[in-house]
Queue: 3 jobs
Job 1
Amino acid sequence: MKAKLHPYCRKYVLLTMSSLLLRVYGVIYRLFLLRCFGAEPFGLLGMIFPFYRLLSLLITMGLPTAFVRLIAIEKAKKNTAWILQSKKTVFTFVAVTAFLVSCLLFLFATPLGSLLYNDLRTGPLLKYYALALNLHCLCLVYRGYFHGLDRIAPLAFADLIETLGETTFILLFLFSRPCPRLSVEAAGLILAKGYLLGEATCLGALFLYDRSRVRPVLTNTAPQAASGRKLLPLLCSSFPLMAQQLVLSLARIAESILLPKLLTKGGLTPTQIAHNLGEYWEMAMPLLLFPLILFSPVSTLILPATARATVKNNLPVYFQKLRWLLRGALLYSLGVSFLLLKFAKPLSLLLYETTAATRYLPFLLPALPFMIMNNLLTPVAEGLGKQVFLLRATLVLIFIKTGVMAAFVPLPAFGLAGAAWALTISQALLFCLLLKETFYTVVPNTKWFFLFKSKFFHLPKL
């Protein structure tokens, strides 16, 4: 048993340590750049980035996530020839689509920036992001490819390599030209160039890893071509994933527009709205999301493991192990919630020099156990091929979350606490839906108290 768990523990530690290192380094690096360039260049990039992410989502069409499951299945069947063929097909499809979109974005960057953001300074920045778009989409496909093959090292170090490439360019520029503070336009261009170089560095590293470590192994084990799935079925399985991610992306944009309008109905001024949203989004939410960092690596390992268990027909045994994992996640989340609630004020003073974030934590912390367990159950549903279910569940929950916010946020007694309750309610409902679609569907005899030993729910005999 220990021999079987040892590779997973090693992969978990690798993903966790790289994520923590990147998080700490990212905070220090961002503070340094803010002091060098000021906040306004980051504001320009912040306007562009949601549109850039939306384009990358439309180009890849959910293929990286669908690719993970199908590669894991074919790897379990030892059909490595299909893996090589489908990799070439998917890469060609994404590369051609990304090239066409990036060309259009580059050519019409200036009028598009003026139309979308009413700021001509965004036009030159969009050109650099157009060049980075092709590289970013190929990096996403590479990550899905390595994820399906259960190659964790490139997943763990891809973001670190990207950040290192970006940092190297910007630091070399800063230290080679000791000059007065740059203008906003010049600083924005330097940041955009750094991002472009970071994406190029990441893609180059993933390409070299594939050529030196992965492709020779697959080629040696697949001397002859084997039949497998074509691109059309792969696209059909990826469309629900693309639609789900697209809906989530649009929902985040809609929420950023809806909340200020709801707070205005509650009688708040624009200054008060900006202040409250800053406290909610930039202070309270990071405190809630930070505990998820320990379980994000586990969710990375779950998707291909679920696909392999489906092929090998040992899902009941696999779900028994998941049950222990969910028990640990529940206990961990309850303990962290208690600690955050108890030490919220000193922690908030240490991080933000104010206790403003603590007023939202009592309404946000009930969502933490559900968020952590949903983070584990979502890749299980993806590994089982339930993409259509995830899309439907996402649409229902966004509708419920929006309804709760619209009902409570305008009330002066609630305000943004109503948004916190909407998040908690939607996460609790998502957990119930995921539980029904995974455990209760695959293992029909599962009891409602499946996370605990059944003897705790038996009445003693008199």
Note: The chain has two domains: 2-229, 246-457.
Job 2
Amino acid sequence: MLDFVGSPMNLRVIGSFGVAALLLAALLVPETTLMLMPLLLVPLALLLFSQFPLLLAGMLVLVYGAALDVQVDSLTAVAGAGGAGALGAALIKLVPFALTAVLLLRYGFSPVINWPFLAFAGIAAISIAVLPMGRVVGNADMVRSFIGSTAPFVLGFALAPKSLWTALCRGAALVPLISTLGGLLAGLVGFYAPMDTFGRFQGLHSPPFLAGFCSTAIFACTLEYLRGFRMPWLLLGGVNLAILLATQARAPLAAVILFLGIVFLLSSRRTFPLKRKVDLVMGGMLPGLVVLGPITAYALQRFTQPNYSGGDFNFSGRDIIWPFFLDAIERRPLFGFGLGAGKLIVDPADPGIRYLGSNAAHNEYLRLSVDGGVIGCAAIFAALVAWVVLGTRRAPLVDRLVLRAGIGAVLLHSGFDNTLIASTAVIQFTWFAAALARARLETREASAARSASRTEARRLALAAR
């Protein structure tokens, strides 16, 4: 059945009949057709995307680059939608599931173990037993949290051709640029301010979110540059670094510095030749100082701002909200309060929380320890490390270095931001999944080529006897 439907000719025939049926329905029952139009278009969209999965991959990049979640939330807030304020975040979390569904139908399941997804599934299973005791989070909240937590990793279940994985790897590098250009345009027409109230650049997002996308984009640019040493990737990486500095976000910047330091210092001559490093340092120093120097000075201003409590360092409210989570962890340290409880343990009526305007932990170790306990938190981060380390054992040296340096940077960043639940996580771990899948395909291709070469050599040797 799938083979019959999946052939290009049959898809065109089915699509043509579908369009004709929609036109006929519009003529006969226009009001009903208009009401049902979104549902009627779904089958046609699935047929289109199954024929052109690269189109859906491009839509994923565009949806996150254009900050559809932020814009939908802003529009619903202006329209007085009230509880619909989380609609945008829910919509964009469905995009990776849609892409995965299309790939599964067309190419099948990947045999590689999806460790992070399994870790979250295990915590969800434990939460079913924990919920009646904790009475902190309900089943509906747990399901929403499970969907949001697994959306970044669901793509790891699918097979796809190398071209699609490469498109996703490179598309991740374009997300901050799309947000920046869109934010500048939106600022010109008065639709959305590209700077927040504190003077930090945010594009179409918020400064922390744009910075999170920038860190992934820099990972992606570094990988593509080291795979061929092409100048456009180096320049695009510099643009993403400039955008990151303009956001004045400190945790993503620290993660990027750690990542670049590992890549630069621990790379071998085969992955990053010394001559390339010297050329990059000497040739890039002057233009880098000219372009990034003023932006760096602007970014460093935030390191010297006074803290909310009058101290010498600005914790951005983390020193206020972290004690709530630490207290909850002390009450139930081993298995936590259930998946999704990290959003509910903070009292929104607390004066400090009302002042901050957010109940987010800004620390994944604390949030996940509330959700799944210390055991669950350790399991999730161990699964992340295993996913990348085991997935790069036979990968090309460049991919192994960059992906392992990237997961090290994620571990650092997770101590100061929400790196596994926000929309930035979808792009970040989609990039990881795509890079791992591409590396696996290239390893198999290289192995097959070596095997074919040995077979041909034996054949020639036998023929020469």
Note: Residues 54-464 form one domain.
Job 3
Amino acid sequence: MTPPSPSSPPPPPAPYPSPPRHPWGRFFGHLLGAYGLLALTALLFLAFSLALPGTFPTLDNVSAVLSGQSIPAMLALGATIPIATGKFDLSIGYGLGLAHVMTMQLVVAEGWPWPLACLVVVLGGAAVGAVNGVVVEFAKIDSFIATLGTGSIMYAFTGWITDGARIVPGPHGLPDAFTALYDSRFLGLPVSAFYVLALTAVLWLVLERLPLGRYLYVIGSNARAADLVGIPSRRYVIYAFTGSGLVVGIAGVLLAAQQQTGNPSVGMDYLLPAFVGALLGSTAIRPGRANALGTLVAVTVLAVGLAGIGQLGARFWVTPLFNGSTLLLAVGLAGYAARRQLRQRRTQPSRTPRQPPGATP
């Protein structure tokens, strides 16, 4: 072995290893990061139950909360899919308004059978989502700008269809089977809550257990690395936006069954709560990445908080204040969770590769 030449720089000093954390500290830190939001939900419910013992911890109140928050929960789950790839779909509020107006237009004004109208609207939502994905990936437009532009176009179509007025059913109203999609009950609870649970289970299966979900997470973590390992990023990002549009179409049908009128301006009211739930959900269950169970927990926190402050007599401006503040908190916590996860990966000791047979040390 030849000695180093005098002109060669000295080797850098070896970094001092970071002191190992106690295993109990890591364990409790993981529990707090993964299930802290779930514990907060229980604490909020307990606090409001003690403050409002006659109205809050009742089956009627729970049913009202579940029914009123089902649409925001579905939109939050739909927004979670593109977020897993590092993209954002700001058109979901406009898409919800267009989907529910189209449902009312086809059933009331055009006289279509309601199952056919619902099917067309849901498939149309998926098609709009695919268009969003194509615009983002092939036109190379940032997802914020692209989906805001397509959302504005959808809002224009909504106004053109309704001419700025509401779509009101005739004297016979809507078919009972159609309104039962939202108004019926199962096991004593609103059936819409079980739609949310079913959608959460499907998204959890797709994102956590199927190759499609793993590909989406790899793309969201490092799109360049995904391309290098052979994952077609463009195709899977389009799949993510298509899934988001499909969920928005389903939510639009349910919103039409709930409100039973076509309101062209209703969709934007759901945009902020949906993103609050999706971003806050990325700090729970699987901190650092968007996940279906975390989104469900986050939406539950928001539902309990809004119901509690509403029954305490809060003014009308408290709800947007609560949503906006929670959104800022959610973004901050999501960024912190992602940075914490990255630091943990960097501080993990690397495995020494095994020597091939016959190699000399």
Note: The chain is about 70% helix and 0% strand.
